[in-house]
Amino acid sequence: MTTHEPLSRPLTAIEARVLSTLMEKARTVPDSYPLSLNAVVTGCNQKTTREPIMNVSDAQAQEALDELKHLGLVREASGSRVARYEHNFQRGMGVPEQSAALLGLLMLRGPQTAGELRINAERWYRFADISSVEAFLDELQSRSDEKGGPLVVCLPRTPGTREQRWAHLLCGEVDISTAGRSGTAIDVAQPLQARLKALEDEVLDLRAAMAFMAQELGLTLPVKNTARSALTDIE
Fold this sequence. Notes:
The protein is globular.
């Protein structure tokens, strides 16, 4: 699959989860990357920063990895006794790092506003402001047919909110009538609550990353409340 070549078919929900998990772990736990099959499954089934929560089996993850390799979006790393996998998203889709970060977050966490994407992208890519996020979203929405067409869609504003949410199109067209009502949209009139929620998510991200790395390295974390929470998050 060459750069700018459109996908030959939409991704399945599990393929999108596997791909976005590889994209996330490459940025958040680089010491454990590329990932083994077991690590991919663990990352896919995290109970934090995932929408929806899934229960992906080893067989389902392996099938998804094989299909993603065929599509040119995943590569099997060499030089390891255990098969390990890494994503090839930016080159495979022909998008810059900023766009890849936004698409990865949309695949992992579901529809989000530009403000939520900027906050959630802190560990993926630091956007200067919301306007820069919106610029890349607009570019992804107006992508030419030669490059495969739009990769995101702006959802209708939900009642009681002032910001519109965005969804990815890598799994095909979105049912706008239902997607616009799903999830919890954050009104811009409540910035403190939005920031608090983002900080809580970041703490959960860090806990999950600690437990993830410990599992990959075969280490046992001290049995404390915070450690136990982290392990529970990725079970």
